[in-house]
Input
Amino acid sequence: MAVLAEPRLQIPVDPGYLRLKRLVDVTVTLALLPLLLAVMGVIAVLIRLDSSGPVFFRQKRLGLNGKEFTLLKFRSMYANSDDYLHREAIRRYMNGDRLSSSQQAANPYKLNDDPRITRIGRLLRRTSLDELPQFFNVLHGEMSLVGPRPPLPYEVEQYSERDWLRLAGKPGLTGYWQVYGRSKVDFKTMVEMDIAYLQRQSIWEDLRLIALTPLVMLSGRGGA
Output
């Protein structure tokens, strides 16, 4: 498993909390698994009917301490799409540039008028249902239910030393930025929100964010 770099700054964390957090991750995921599999089965059929290509999309992301892992999503784009538009959008977001109103989605990591997105893909992205396969990343231990959004390698290449603190904890399916931030904050504010979460993380805060996440999904404000 590749490591892009070792962060020079760390955030202290209670080992007991990490064990309990892992227990919550596994318990909640296994409890939801029957429902998840049923919903995912329907989504898989819709994807196959909508466009040719694989059901799942695999992408390299960076997790705890910069360790590379393969993130799973439902495919929401046409097969073999180029990633230039997304790379450019990420660069502009990290530099503080504003996207045009037609491009700006509720989630700054996604584009409204992206021509690569399929019909069913737009629905999946708007409701964050394209993220459901990441529960398998949680079971595998690469992600947690709650944590910072997992960054892309070409995003982390532009990180400052402080930005690296986002990688001091496991990435999550949901988190403080995913619930309260998104298009309302710029990149630096997102970093500070993630660092603030990691500095005060607790099981009660995790459970609160988990409980709020379905409301965010139903509002259609986009996925991480």
Remarks:
- Confidence is low (pLDDT under 50) at residues 101-106.
- The beta strands are 56-62, 68-74, 144-146, 172-174.
- Residues 15-50 form the longest helix (36 residues).
